[in-house]
Structures are given as structure tokens and as C-alpha cells.
Specification:
The complex is a heterodimer. Chain A is mainly α. Chain A has nine helices and no strands. Chain A folds into two domains: 95 residues, RNA polymerase sigma factor, region 2, helix turn helix motif (Rna Polymerase Sigma Factor, Chain: A); 85 residues, Orthogonal Bundle (Arc Repressor Mutant, subunit A). In chain A, 69% of the residues lie in helices and 0% in strands. The chains are: A mainly alpha, B mainly alpha.
Chain lengths: 198, 47
């Protein structure tokens, strides 16, 4: 296992394709937390996140076994794209069935009293500021939240974000621009400080 | 900086990054991971 951990994603894929299931276990370990975080951040429901996480890997495994995976050196981005498409499919189906969708969830940011909490200690202020920023991000429209998470949590480039979400780079950049505008607007409306105490 | 901006309305990349990275987004359930490992092994066996 120690040896496997030192291999690249593509080397592990090749080993798994040749029957080494430990190589797949290593890939799973390598990406499980990051991928689950992305899915759970977007869908905001742990049970649903587990289902989509499982379906993502099932789809990936089938693709690998059929020899249909084309190596680009970006296995993680490929997994994220599968997950993104499954999330889109889920919410499209959910909407068609007239159930409450993620899009319909309303988060009343401006009436969230905890956002206005005053703190005296710098560390508490910083914790509060970071929490406030997460809530501001959480209040963004879904497509803007997703881009912000991919860029700042997953450290993806705009090219990768565009590829994963199936939009142009300009659209990805535009979503980020509107996300930042919205965060600034919401913070100004609520009087939330976006500065960390030194 | 935009003349209309105020310190409280400015947000840096680093602040957003720090905020998101300090958040907790959970981990996959162990039963889900077990299923995936089994599926990966069984599909290999079948094929």
C-alpha cells in the first residue's frame, strides 16, 4: 500500500485495469474526502451526498473496466465532472417530480441573527468572520456557489472548472465575478466585516 | 480600490479560501466506501 501511495493516478488506473483492486482502493482513499466535500457542499444533504458519491464511483468503475477512460492526468477533475453531471441529473429529475429542490431552498441570510454577533476576542472575531464568509457563500445561487467552492476549496483553475461544469471559461469567470459582487453586496447590507483581525 | 468600496465590503481571495478550507463538509459513510470497494473488486472479478 505504501508503494501504491507513491504512484500517480494514471499508474493506479493502469494497475486496476489489470486486476489490482488495491490500486483502486488507493485511488478511492486519495479522492474520497475531497469529492464528498464537493458533493455535500453543493447538495447540502448528507444522505443525498452519499448516494451521489456512490453513483459517481460506480460510474467511474464501470468506465474504467470498459477501458473507456482517457487519461488526461486529471483523474480528480474527471471524478468531479461525473459527480457534477449526476447532481444536475438529480435536481432536474427532482424538479420534474415537483418536489422541493435545492434551487428552491431559501436561506434567509439577512435575518440570521448569528451573523450580527459581536465578538471581543480577535480569535473569536476571526472565527466568526470565517463562519460569516461561509454563510455568505452558502447564500449564493447554486452555480456561483459551485464555482467559488471549486476555485477556493478545490484549487481548480478556471479552465478545469469550465470543463467540469460544461461551460465556457468566460461563463465560469462571470459566475465568479457575480459571486464576489453578491458576497460584497450581502456583507454591506448586513454590515458584516470581511477583514480578519491581525 | 473602487472609490465606493469600504473596508468592510472588500473581500480577498485569501479570506474566501481560508473560510472554505476551515469549514467541515463531512465524510462519506463507511458503508458507502465498503460498497464501492466491493463493487470495484467484484466487477473486476466478473470481467
Amino acid at each position: 500500500m505504501e508503494h501504491l501511495n507513491q504512484l500517480t493516478d494514471d499508474q493506479l488506473v493502469a494497475l486496476y485495469s489489470n486486476g489490482n483492486t488495491k490500486a483502486f482502493d488507493t485511488l478511492l482513499s486519495r479522492y474520497q474526502d475531497k469529492l464528498y466535500s464537493y458533493i455535500n457542499f453543493v447538495v447540502r444533504n448528507r444522505d443525498l451526498a452519499d448516494d451521489i458519491f456512490q453513483d459517481t464511483f460506480v460510474k467511474a468503475i464501470v468506465t474504467l473496466q470498459k477501458g473507456n477512460y482517457t487519461s488526461t492526468g486529471k483523474f480528480g477533475a474527471w471524478l468531479t465532472r461525473i459527480a457534477h453531471n449526476l447532481i444536475i441529473d438529480y435536481f432536474r429529475q427532482d424538479k420534474n417530480e415537483n418536489t422541493v429542490s435545492n434551487d428552491a431552498q431559501e436561506y434567509d441570510l439577512l435575518n440570521d441573527a448569528s451573523l450580527a454577533e459581536a465578538n471581543v476576542e480577535d480569535s473569536l472575531i476571526n472565527e466568526q468572520t470565517l463562519r460569516d464568509v461561509r454563510r455568505l457563500v452558502d447564500a449564493l445561487p447554486d452555480n456561483q456557489r459551485e464555482v467559488v467552492f471549486m476555485r477556493y476549496y478545490q484549487d481548480l483553475s478556471f479552465k478545469e472548472i469550465a470543463d467540469i461544469t460544461g461551460v465556457s471559461i468566460n461563463t465560469a469567470l462571470g459566475r465568479m465575478r457575480y459571486a464576489l459582487i453578491n458576497i460584497r453586496r450581502m456583507s454591506a447590507e448586513k454590515g458584516i466585516s470581511l477583514m480578519l483581525a491581525s | 480600490m473602487d472609490q465606493t468600496s469600504t473596508p468592510s465590503s472588500f473581500i480577498s481571495d485569501n479570506l474566501i479560501r481560508a473560510a472554505l478550507k476551515s469549514g467541515s463538509y463531512g465524510k462519506p459513510a463507511e458503508r458507502t466506501l465498503d460498497f464501492i470497494r466491493s463493487f470495484a473488486a467484484e466487477l473486476r472479478f466478473v470481467s
